[in-house]
Amino acid sequence: MIKLIALDLDGTVVSHELGISSRVLSTLKHLLKETDIKLVIATGRMYPSAVSFAKQIGITEPLIAYQGALIKGLVPPHEVILHSPIALETAAELLKMLIAEKYHINMYIDDILWTTPDNAFASFYAKTALVQPNFATNLLDQLTSAPTKIMVIDDTRVDSLLEKLAKTFNGKLTFCRSRTNFCEIIEASVSKWNAIKLLADQHNIQPHEIMAIGDQGNDISMISGAGIGVAMGNAPDAVKAVADDVTAPIDKDGVAIAIEKHVIPQLALS
User: Fold this and answer.
1) How many CB atoms are closer than 10 A to CB 203?
2) Where is 18: in which H helix or E strand?
3) Is 70 exceeded by the pLDDT of residue 87?
4) What is the separation of C-alpha 87 from the centre of its chain, rounded to a whole number of angstroms?
5) pLDDT tens digit string along 244-265?
6) pLDDT tens track for 152-208
7) How many CB atoms are located within 10 Å of the residue 68 CB?
């Protein structure tokens, strides 16, 4: 019996046009209205950029943001349940390396996005994330407290960056790809699955009672950890390989199809 469904946003629930299909929205609203199943968003997005999607669906469970580095309530008083930022010293070392190699960097501190004025991806990211960045010529000057996440956007060097990070920061940081050109960098203990387990434990929900649906490398931890791990049809092969099931792509309402297949039948039996 599934008691909690963890949902990635981009590429899973939310399209590139930043919309949620009517079928997926109807399915999720039905679960919220007619069942006790808990719906949890687990996204790499900043908390402020994910809230509107949670409200559109009607989700009230705490929101998992920044790949699991932050869990924060969606209803007042918006309690911070977990915050695991990158250690300040490690963040400084990382930033110096990224700046020296001229990467386009996004740095997230206290739900504020910092980037440089010459970041060619800034306007695209602002439109996608629904958050306006703050600009600073030298990001090291803004590193006054531990960042929740650092992200690199690069069209050609993500693979080589992931290899270098593994050699240089193994044990200090976790890093993954959330889009073909996004490299997400977080504290070593952070993952979507660890955050989901923390919330599940509060309700005595066991891993086999959890369903997780995602589409990218940053979703592998929750897809492989959940009792039913579902990869979207638009996911890379590496993500599909760890899943219990592969559903339709996002443009074919894969989330709704997965829920109709794995969850709806159990409701008729309960």
Assistant:
1) 12
2) none
3) yes
4) 20
5) 999 999 999 999 999 999 999 9
6) 999 999 999 999 999 999 999 999 888 889 999 999 999 999 999 999 999 999 999
7) 28
- 245-246 sheet: strands from edge to edge: 38-41, 4-7, 210-214, 228-231, 245-246
Say how far apart CA 39 and CA 56 lie, in whole Å. 13
- Taking alpha carbons only, the member of 182, 102, 100, 101 closest to residue 149 is 182
pLDDT at residue 45 above 80? yes
Give the percent of the chain with pLDDT over 70.
99
Q: For residue 153, list its beta bridge partners.
A: 104, 182
Residues 49-55: contacts with CB within 8 Å, 24+ apart? 49/129, 49/130, 49/131, 50/9, 52/130, 53/9, 53/13, 53/14, 53/20
Q: Within 13 Å and on the Cβ side, how many CA atoms surround 228?
A: 21
The sign of the torsion formed by the CA atoms of 189, 48, 218, 145 equals negative
Looking at 21-25, 27-31, 130-134, which range is the least confident one?
Answer: 130-134
**How many CB atoms lie under 10 A from the CB of residue 19?**
13
CB atoms within 10 A of CB 134: 12
Supply the Cα-derived Rg of the chain in whole angstroms.
18
Q: What would the two tokens of residue 113 be?
A: 């996005």
